[in-house]
Write a structure and sequence with these properties.
This protein is an all-alpha fold and 217 residues long. It has helices at 2-26, 31-58, 62-93, 103-127, 153-169, 172-202, 204-212. The N and C termini lie far apart (42 Å).
Length: 217
Amino acid sequence: MKAIGIFAVKLAGLAVVYVIFVATADHAFSLPAAMAVMWGAVAAVPVVAAGGRWMLDRRPEPRRAEMLTIPVHYLEGLLLGCALIVAFPVVQAHPWSRVWFPQRISQVLMELFGVMAALAVLNLSVRGLGLPFAAVLSRRLATGWLYARCRNPMGLMLLLFFLASALWLRSLDAIVWVAGWLAPAWVLFVKRFEERELEIRFGAPYREYKAKTPFLL
C-alpha cells in the first residue's frame, strides 16, 4: 500500500510539473518577467540543492534519502524546465548579440546530442533500473556503458544539446546563459545534493565508482 501511495505522489508531481510547463509555454511574459524567470529560476537551483543537502545530512539514511529525492528533484526539474522554456524564445525575440556558426553543423550536433541523451536514459533504465527526474529512482548503481565514461552522461549530453541549440540560433546571449549560468547551477545541484544522495543510498560501491570515474569528461 505504501508503494502505491508513493507511486501516486510521483504521478501527481509529474502532472503538476507538466501543467506548469504548459502554462509557462503559453504565457506571454513581459521582457522583465521573462528575464526574471530565466535567470532567477536557475539561481534558485543551488538554494534547493543546499536545502536538500542539509536535510540529507541531518539523518543520512537510505530510505529517507530516497523519499527526500522525490520533491527535491521535482523542484529542480521545475525550475530548470521553466527557465529553459522561457529563455530560448527570449533570446530569439530580443537578440542582443550574435555569433556566426553554420546552422547545418549545429543542427547535426543537436541531433547527435539528443540521441546520446536518449541513450543515457536507456542506459540508466537498463543498468540502474531507474528513470531520470525521480520518476523511478535507480535501484542499483549504473556503472556500465556510457556511465563507465562519466558519472553524468545524461546531464552532459543535455547541456551539449542546449549549447548546440544556442549555436543554431546564433545567439551569443544563449551561449553565455547556458555555459555561464545554467551549467554551473546544474553542476552545483549534482555536487551538493545528488552525489550525496547516491552515496547515502549505495554506500561504498558509489564512493569507489566516484573515485575512478570522471564527473563529466
